[in-house]
Automatic annotation (TrEMBL):
Residues 64-176 form the C-type lectin domain. This is C-type lectin domain-containing protein. It comes from the Eukaryota. It comes from Portunus trituberculatus (Swimming crab). The lineage of its organism: Eukaryota, Metazoa, Ecdysozoa, Arthropoda, Crustacea. PANTHER family: MANNOSE, PHOSPHOLIPASE, LECTIN RECEPTOR RELATED (PTHR22803). Residues 1-20 are annotated as: Disordered. Transmembrane segments: none annotated. Pfam families: Lectin_C (PF00059).
Amino acid sequence: MRGRGRRTTHSNLSSGAEHIPSRRQSVAPWRLCVLPFSLYLPLTAPLTTSLHPTACTEPFKAVANKWCVAANISVPEVAHTWPGARSACQRIKGDLIILEEDDKMQAITAHLLTHFSGGRESYPFWVGGRGNLGKWTWVDGSPMNLQSNMWIPDSPYEKLNNGVSHTLLIQAGPWKRRYMESMPPESNFPGYICEK
């Protein structure tokens, strides 16, 4: 049986080519080029900033799978100034939270409503903004957006004390929406929000 098969010659290939699909036509387009998996990833999957479920360590909790947050309320006898709240965050390897994006503000508001109860969910909380002689920055040194709708109307403003002010997250309005408000540095509040 060995030699009985049809012999392939150049003329056989060229004469039957119109009936046989070429290799390029018969192979699925995704198989034409073999690349390492990592080279496909940017083209096929959007990049996300989701946290791995174990990325946040105690006392931090994952909020919206994007941020590691620890919201704290001390008993009123040990209410904190803004610098005291920042020191408390730094002791747990974090810092006061930066709230530059609206979706982050909404996620934090929802977290506070579910995390606290008995009226404590409406407490004010220190956050990581500060003003000094008209220059407003977050704790990481980035500038704050003073035209943001996350500020309560007529804020920020520097209250006395040589133009120094700090940022407090307050609840206002019937929808339990939170806003930022500027406060003088000697102010004391029991709530503060840390971020890692």
